[in-house]
Hints:
Blueprint: E1 7-8, E2 14-15, E3 24-25, H1 28-43, H2 61-73, E4 80-82, H3 86-98, E5 105-109, H4 114-127, E6 132-136, H5 141-144, E7 149-155, H6 167-176, E8 180-184, H7 196-199, E9 203-206, E10 221-224, H8 226-229, H9 268-281, H10 286-307, E11 312-313, E12 325-329, H11 333-342, E13 345-346, E14 348-350, E15 354-358, H12 366-381
Parallel strand pairs: 2-13, 5-6, 5-7, 7-8, 8-9
Antiparallel strand pairs: 1-3, 4-10, 9-10, 11-12, 12-15, 14-15
Amino acid sequence: MLRRGSFSLPEGVIYLDGNSLGPLPIHTPERVARMLREEWGAMLIGGWNGVTRNGAGWMEQPMKLGDRIGRLIGAEPGHVTVGDTLSIKVFQALASALAMTDRKVILSDSGNFPSDLYIAEGLMGTLGQGHSLRVVEPEAVADEIDGEVGVLLLTEVDYRTGRLHDMAGLTARAHQAGVLCVWDLAHSAGALPVDVRRAGADFAVGCTYKYLNGGPGAPAFIYVAPRHAGSARPALSGWLGHDAPFAFERSYRPGDGVARMRVGTPPVIQMAALEASMDIWDTVDLQELRLASIRLTERFIAGVEATCPDLELASPRHPAARGSQVSFQHPEGYAAIQACIAQGVIGDFRAPDIMRFGFTPLYIDEDDVDAAVAVIARVMGERLWEDPRYRERGAVT
Length: 397
């Protein structure tokens, strides 16, 4: 499972923040450089055309990359496309789902990433049709699914605690009540096996810069179930989602299937970087990855709890109930994380008091876990977090 040699990681660093930004694959710089030299540099605008016309196939990249990501999330071939940002894809999926129901309630939970809730609030205001957003505790979601709810909008893995929703169970319950489901896989894709087809998801979205190592600003992806692909109405009817973009017709005609969810011009340079990372992910067995992740996180929890009595586990204790991250709570969590980073263990902080650590078995092993536990124990035991320099807040926590 371990592929440490496939990633560029600084010497002396234990990187437990791949759930926020994945590290650089070693072949990405050359793949991007080759794209710049041999495609953009040599082909100029011809790079948009397919290889049969001496191009680089830039226009087809979003769907090709979509299929490669689709394998990781259990999607049917041809039903995932890549491009734009995750916020845009959340907007598209939610708007399409709302257009398919007369009900006015969007149900979500307090563990959802705030940006998803912001998008929902903005969309409701734009539509002006009396929609409301019902936000409940994660444990209460199932009981809140009723005949008033039109769309269930959830992030499968809680960004703060790593709590894992039962996608299949909640989707089945929602469908029994006539509710459509939009799943955010930002902390799932590349972290654990996902099967949107078997779960019956209506829509799913996610990013590629976390576990999938596409790089900062890497494009997002969207999945539309085959039963909706020909009828879903893209609220953002962009040029690239048109059935025939270069016919330059006066009015919009949606493209075929999930292709209609394309909006802006594909980010070709960033997609080249994503291609390099997908060369790694194409070879990964997700079941094996999940088992390795559980071994690492269980070892980490046991080690921290044995040496850091001041830290309180914020993640579910049972491994089947969490993703590939472990979170602890401490009143001085921000300063403590900064002290850990200064000692070579990189995690991150989420307000108000969460110290968050992500685990990717492709470059983290048991020795890393033990070394990280030793550092955290020293930070907490010697109260290194009391150093004033660790209290200075950066723009990104």
